[in-house]
Amino acid sequence: MKQFKAESKRLLDLMINSIYTNKEIFLRELISNASDAIDKLYYNSLTDKKIKVNKKDLCIKLDIDKDNRILTITDNGIGMSKDELENNLGMIAKSGSLQFKEENEKKKDVNIIGQFGVGFYSSFMVSNSVEVISKKYGEEKAYKWVSKGAEGYNITECEKDEYGTTIILKIKDDSEEYNYSEFLDSYSIESLVKKYSDYIRYPIKMNITRRELKKGSDSEYEDVTKEEILNSMIPLWKKDKKKIKDEEYNSFYQSKFYDYEAPLKVIHTSVEGLCSYKSLLFIPSHAPYDYYSKEYEKGLSLYSNGVLIMDKCSDLLPDYFSFVKGIVDSDDLSLNISREILQQDRQLKLISSNVEKKIKSELESMLKDERDKYEEFFKEFGMQLKFGIYNDYGMHKDELKDLILFYSSNDKKQITLKEYVTNMKNNEENIYYACGETISKIDMIPQVEKIKDKGYNILYLTEYVDEFVLKTLTEYDGKKFINVCENNVDLDTDEEKEKLKKINEENKDMFIKMKDILGNEVSEVRFTHRLKNHPVCLVSEGPVSIEMQKVINAMPNDEKINAKIILEINESHPIADKLKKLYDEDKNKFENYTKILYSQSRLIEGLSIDNPTEISNLICELLSK
Ligand code: ADP
């Protein structure tokens, strides 16, 4: 017996012992795999003349053997070779799924089932043993894959006449918690197919016995068994929007895109004109676990008149809307051209530009009419929109600038830039912002306090991309973005400025001495009025802010940059007089005070200090006096 790969084994264990109440989804998963396999074969037959299939024969068959507690799902799709059985079923196929972390085990198992798209393995939620008999199209031999669960699996050669795959499930015995026998009841299976798999484009057939009037009689009944087609086969996107229930959209979305939650928004459109197409798009309610990683692949499924031609057509979505899932179906696309040529296709370009406009306008109306929902959306995918603004040298900034939100100190909630500007008191020229790790940390930044006191609204930037976004935008509606921690924030009156200039002039020598003590760390030391209660702060001068320095230097490259940093001391704080006094009377203490104050200002900024032991000793020395 062969062992499952470690991750698969753990996942299987979870499936087998799952307390997941929604066990019935195994059927939709297996039917969806069967339909995918038929799609593949059918698509190949369109592009490869050697492959001959009759469209009319393509189907999925279900079969129930109540006495032996067996449910069988058969398809005449592409089938699997021995290697494919091994690779597809012996381990989790998706590379992302391998990131199976301990922490996930602790979460509800609902999450795991959804997040990993464990399709096939879900059959172990309802079966004691699973057999997969498959013959790949065009190959001579068939193989059988058998597993009773986590111990392992066997693959042996076997007989099978037709190409395709048969999955044989030995359904578990009923227990106190669960009535597994429902999966052996043709009416329950019929209703499960209607509920989850109605839109599958191939007929799902099953023998069903119904009571019918006996021929020639008007009162006598008999049981008649007939093969019936259980699904309507109309793809959901081709149905009339008004007749589709939310539940249908949700179920389609969840099974097609492996999500355990319903989507946040459904966008169903039908476009007629220069290029006709139907699209069914979804905005997920949460970011997939690999969304902000390289593994994530964007794209929409592309169909030509109901036939899948590409599973993830990335050209249909701009990067900044990469979170959107869905399908596009157009009769105007040719089936018989290669995917590479298709990507250059004029029609496809038209569709993609329409899709983009549609998504944008849906987001705009969500922002306008369903603010809470939009904020939920933004929490999950706002980062992607922000990346969109500063990527490609800001090429798309105008399209996206009204979709981003920042926390506002006045409103105490997320606002748009438009809202900031609309609520400006009068003639204000700038949009103020401050950066930090959290809202509460920004609240404590010395400079923020003073500016808030003067009644200005400040945007709090807590994501590392935020400041890059504003730098890319440079302005909004003619208003410049100003970092309150930068040197050029100027809110003082001329008189105040004059006064400060004088005091700084008087203490020039002291500041030169302080700069000497600190070496190359700062470019200047001076008194300030920009602080209210706090003794010190750092401000930056020039194009690189302290926050940007932090972000850039944290990136894995050799280039380190330094912001031009100025140490400012609150002129109205008692420490100012103390410093002046020490400068005249105790040079040694003065040096220690300077070092401590500078370290404090760095810590406030969230920067580390180079000599923590020295500083800690200096402070202790002061404390013990
Ligand atoms: P997923 O469908 O998400 O890829 P599954 O675990 O459900 O994950 O299936 C793993 C792989 O096994 C599929 O990607 C497919 O290649 C193969 N497979 C599953 N069922 C069938 C089938 N009925 N016919 C052919 N291949 C199949």
CATH topology of the largest domain: Heat Shock Protein 90
CATH architecture heading of the largest domain = 2-Layer Sandwich
Q: Could you tell me the number of beta strands? A: 22
Strand order of the largest sheet: 5-4-3-6-2-1-7-8
Q: Distance between termini? A: 75 Å
How much of the sequence is in beta strands?
Answer: 15-25%
Low-confidence stretches: 93-111
**CATH H-level superfamily title of the largest domain:** Histidine kinase-like ATPase, C-terminal domain
Briefly, what CATH class of the largest domain? Answer: Alpha Beta
Summarize the structure.
Helix content is 37%, strand content 22%. The chain has 21 helices and 22 strands.
Give your account of this protein's structure.
The chain folds into 4 domains: 221 residues, Heat Shock Protein 90 (2-Layer Sandwich), CATH 3.30.565; 131 residues, Ribosomal Protein S5, domain 2 (2-Layer Sandwich); 80 residues, Rossmann fold (3-Layer(aba) Sandwich); 132 residues, Up-down Bundle (Four Helix Bundle (Hemerythrin (Met), subunit A)), CATH 1.20.120.790. The chain has 625 residues and is of the alpha+beta class. 33% of the residues are buried. The strands form 4 sheets. The chain has an 8-stranded mixed beta sheet, with helices on one face. Helix 9 packs across helix 10, helix 10 crosses helix 15 and helix 19 runs antiparallel to helix 20. About 3% of the residues have low confidence. The N and C termini lie far apart (75 Å). Adenosine-5'-diphosphate (ADP) binds next to helix 2.
